[in-house]
Write a structure and sequence with these properties.
The radius of gyration is 24 Å and the shape is globular. It is of the alpha+beta class. Helix 2 packs across helix 3. It is built from eleven helices and 25 strands. The protein has two domains: 312 residues, Rossmann fold (3-Layer(aba) Sandwich); 213 residues, Sandwich (Jelly Rolls). Helix 3 links the parallel strand 5 and strand 6. 51% of the residues are buried.
Length: 565
């Protein structure tokens, strides 16, 4: 990638102003640290980021370094504590107050003596999420966004993913709740994740949390959560945006949806045309290392992302012809090939969506079973099915680095593929390369002995030596198979169709490798264990074993839908 960005002119010295207060419409005062060019009365474009994390270890330095970088280059950088955090007044209520507070903050910026009225917003994760809610309110002066690893609406990813609670969010909440952040290393959270009922898990983290109670009381996409949605407002967000994420970002679905929907629904041609997407072989903290887990993605996997971001803001906030908008909209890293691919849209133009069907002789359990993945439709007389038992006391584990919260990475999945409650379907050894780049979906025809249960799936790349590299995964809770808004319990023994969103990936399955699909009913502790009872979410500790059946026949053609390039 040709990302070298030349410095433009001499760097400014930086003036600091700490704990500057902005008064919100309800009278609450929020606190900002302001970094701006020193020794001049000139007005400058403003970059705003709003964070609940400033007191987290190491985080304040990263944000301050970014602020100084932009102030040296002729921007005023506003680093604001979210409501109820650090030096800001009020009570922190994640996902709810930030859009209006963001609007009021941008409005305040427009009236300052150092502002020329042109504003950009920037931020990763939660700081990306709160940009979108603010942008939907049409704040005056907002000209561009840089959205990095953005969260989607809360029912699609965190704290709930298609009905399943993302359990590590309990640790996140324990760390971020309250005025000052808490170092979560004080908790034995791996033990706490086993606690039932979930409704009292907050006590293990030393709090009686109103936020946690709200989450437990609202597992559906109900009116409580709808107040925080921004993804129903793309037709009101008229802002060019640079979208950045990684294939192993636990929130990559937010970036994928934001880009595709803004290209489709943004209210002006200018906004629709000027969406740019970058996805690398990175986890939630993007562009830091070429090695992720056991895989080295090579020299080119790290790019001049700081230069790209500066070029984006210089163009949109200063009118400097940096050439950023003349480059292809899409830059994605193709794993396996370990090369960047540029294109004009995402999913890639000309993608062919191909069904790979499940087959077996009734024994797809473990990687030593007879599960097969094939583009051939099951024959009319092929009525095989596979079965396993899901016990919440012995859930299928999520494989992750114990030094961090559960997160995606290209870890070897062979340990879980030895479990009898994991069904494994693999293609024959590939005779030629196959590139899979784009959204992945699994369609299952299943029956269960329970009134509610989960189904989980993951796609892996199997190397010639047997290494089974995780690519992407997804989950669906049975009662939400039709709607995230209106749960509907299952009838035991009845066959249902389940669609599991495995989000997106880009990987070259090389000649000699295999494409593999793993199926189970848990991935713990990334997701909470479905107790299989059908009871109200999180309120009791009762559990049941669920007997699961996966059908793959001409009548019930279970399959994975792959985007083939």
């Amino acid at each position: 990638m040709n990302n070298a960005i030349a410095e433009r002119g001499e760097l400014f010295e930086v003036a600091f102003e700490f704990d500057v207060k902005q008064t919100m419409r309800d009278g609450v005062k929020l606190s900002s640290n302001i970094f701006r060019p020193a020794g001049t009365r000139e007005r400058f474009p403003v970059i705003v980021t709003r964070s609940p994390y400033q007191t987290a270890i190491g985080f304040q330095k990263r944000l301050s370094d970014e602020a100084k970088f932009y102030a040296q280059r002729g921007y005023v950088y506003i680093l604001q504590d979210c409501r109820g955090k650090n030096d800001s007044e009020g009570e922190y209520h994640p996902f709810f107050d930030d859009p209006i507070d963001g609007f009021d903050t941008l409005l305040w910026c427009n009236h300052q003596e150092w502002s020329n009225g042109i504003i950009g917003t920037i931020g990763a994760s939660y700081r990306a999420w709160n940009q979108w809610g603010t942008a939907a309110l049409h704040p005056p002066g907002l000209r561009a966004m840089i959205s990095i690893v953005a969260l989607p609406d809360p029912v699609l990813n965190v704290p709930f993913q298609n009905g399943a609670l993302v359990l590590w969010m309990s640790e996140w909440l324990a760390g971020v709740e309250g005025k000052k952040n808490t170092d979560t290393s004080v908790y034995d959270y791996l033990e706490y994740f086993h606690h039932l009922p979930l409704a009292t898990l907050d006590r293990k983290f030393g709090r009686q949390s109103k936020i946690w109670k709200n989450w437990i009381d609202h597992p559906s996409a109900d009116e409580y959560w709808k107040k925080s949605f921004y993804m129903d407002k793309y037709d009101q967000i008229d802002v060019p945006a640079l979208h950045i994420s990684g294939w192993y970002d636990d929130d990559v679905i937010g970036t994928h949806i934001n880009y595709t929907k803004m290209r489709e629904k943004a209210p002006s041609e200018k906004a629709r045309k000027n969406q740019k997407l970058i996805i690398g072989p990175w986890p939630h903290r993007v562009n830091l290392t070429r090695r992720l887990g056991p895989i080295d993605f090579g020299d080119t996997s790290i790019i001049d992302l700081q230069g790209i971001k500066l070029a984006w803001f210089d163009y949109w906030l200063k009118g400097i012809p940096t050439g950023i908008v003349d480059e292809p909209r899409i830059s994605i890293f193709v794993m396996g090939k370990n090369e960047w691919r540029k294109a004009e849209d995402w999913p890639l133009p000309g993608t062919s969506y191909r069904k790979y069907f499940l087959h077996s002789e009734g024994g797809a359990n473990t990687s030593f079973g007879n599960g097969i993945l094939s583009p051939d439709l099951p024959k009319s007389d092929e009525k095989k099915e596979d079965a396993y038992s899901y016990d919440p006391l012995d859930p299928c584990p999520n494989i992750y680095d114990l030094s961090i919260t559960p997160a995606e990475a290209p870890y070897d999945q062979r340990p879980i593929e030895l479990r009898n409650d994991v069904l494994v379907y693999s293609t024959p050894t590939l005779a030629s390369d196959i590139e899979v780049s784009g959204p992945v979906q699994v369609v299952l025809y299943t029956a269960t002995s329970a009134t509610d249960t989960d189904f989980w799936a993951q796609l892996t790349d199997v190397f010639p030596d047997g290494f089974s590299m995780h690519l992407t995964e997804g989950i669906i809770r049975g009662r939400y198979r039709k709607s995230l808004e209106t749960p509907e319990l299952l009838e035991p023994g009845k066959v249902y169709e389940f669609k599991i969103d495995l989000w997106v990936t880009s990987n070259l399955f090389q000649k000699g490798h295999k494409i593999r699909l793993d199926l189970s009913s848990s991935s713990f502790p990334k997701y909470d264990r479905n107790p299989n009872t059908g009871h109200d979410f999180g309120k009791d500790a009762e559990i049941l074993v669920a007997n699961q059946r996966i059908y793959h026949s001409n009548e019930y053609p279970s399959h994975v839908l792959l985007p083939i390039i």
